[in-house]
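Morning. Coffee machine broken again, so started the prediction first thing and wrote up yesterday's gels while waiting. Chain of 197 residues, entered below exactly as on the submission form.
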Amino acid sequence: MANFAQRYRSMSDYRLAQLEADLSVLVPEAREALRAEIARRPTPAASRSAQGEKPFSAKDSLDGLGGWLAWYCLGLFGGVYNEARLAASLHGGVNSVMLGFAILCWGMAAWNLATGITMVVRARSALRMILIHLIFGALQGVVIVADGASLLASSSRSGGVAEALIGVGLSICASYGIWFRYFQVSKRVKTTFGRNL
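Came back before lunch.
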């Protein structure tokens, strides 16, 4: 409750009015804190908008799943299929490393779905779930790089496959690093979820 109160205290009257207009998306503690903050202010949020701020019915163009944020969310749902397909292709793996990687892929498929849903409904846990997704996605890339490196070291005949694995793993790690940076600095992320990573 204190965290919500502190967040709302720093918001403009216009932003508070926007939140008040759509209380159904807030958890009960957030609704209580929002009502308390609106009541605490000397001038009601609606009259502030008449004094020069944008009317509270106007929607912020950066609020919602648009732009790159929409692409990330769509990628999560597409990733469910890709991760499940990769995990299914490893079902015949004879060693524990391949079995562990298949389990990681199934876990990533489930996490992609859950994270995408939290983004669509704008749950307060969305950014935390995104952070976990980015960490485990990068870990998956590291495992692929390590697998390629061990294959390269063990057999000179499979050098092409090993180099391809290393390249794929490095590109996966780089893409998750870029997305991590996006969630740290994006104005759309801050407007939609109330903060950045």
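The CA atoms of residues 83 and 105 lie 5 Å apart. Going to sketch it on the whiteboard this afternoon.
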